[in-house]
Amino acid sequence: MSSTKGKTLYFNDKSMDYVTFGKGKQPLVIIPGLGDGVQTVKGMAQMLALTYREFAKVYKVYVLSRINELRENYTTRNMAADVAQAMDLLKLKSSAVMGISQGGMIAQWLAVDFPKKVERLILTVTTAKLNSFGRERITHWLELNQTDSYKELMLDIASHSYTTKSSRKIKYLYRIMGIFGRIKDKQRIDIQSVSCLKHDSLDFLEKINCPTLIIGAEKDDVLGVDGSLGLHQHIKDSQLTILPEYGHALYEQNKDFQKRVLVFLES
User: Fold this and answer.
1) Interacting residues of 227 by C-beta distance below 8 A, sequence separation 6+
2) Which sequence spans correspond to the domains of the chain?
3) Predicted confidence (pLDDT) per residue in 135-164, tens digit
4) At the fourth CATH level, which superfamily is domain 5-266?
5) How far apart are CA 240 and CA 51, in angstroms?
């Protein structure tokens, strides 16, 4: 049985929380989305191992948070350089890398700036540059965060990320998690939100040469589905899958999602 561990890496003047689990030998690096601004993966090892149990059967999975010392104007490209350093420390040479939402923005830069680190790339519900729809959504979250409206922020994130069937379940989950009214680090959400608003990798995507799978959600109510189509246009030989009936949180909700990724990784 594989062990599920939550740990912290230390490098230069930085620290990064990460979680690792899975029975496989080959590494799969997962870069989570903007929820990482609310809380890092610290203490979430069991929950993540459960969410990604299909991956865990085949891979040694590493879920990497952003560093704990985010500074003003820290970009998605800076965050990718941190992931590259973390991979060095973890002795991960060339890995399958999956980025989700903002994590997908970071994964794009990782593949552009550190091509040797990325053997295969999975970009999930993400974009090379926010459209007006995504810009509006994230600007609204930024405003809620700045006015300390945490409860509204959590509910807004949940209601736009999950298709209606399950948003009741999510509200319940957030209540249990007790995040309401106590976000550890308001600045962390600010910095990560601003990095999404400024993200623009369009002119660099042609540098991505590894096999790439792009997965979008037809009912993505956070970024819209255009971003996935745009990535597919600009990344040569990429594969595109748009999952119908699913929203931004399809990686948690869609039973087929992990199977599709595994088919791509093993092809």
Assistant:
1) 125, 126, 127, 128, 129, 130, 131, 134, 216
2) 5-266
3) 999 999 999 988 888 778 888 887 888 766
4) Alpha/Beta hydrolase fold, catalytic domain (3.40.50.1820)
5) 23
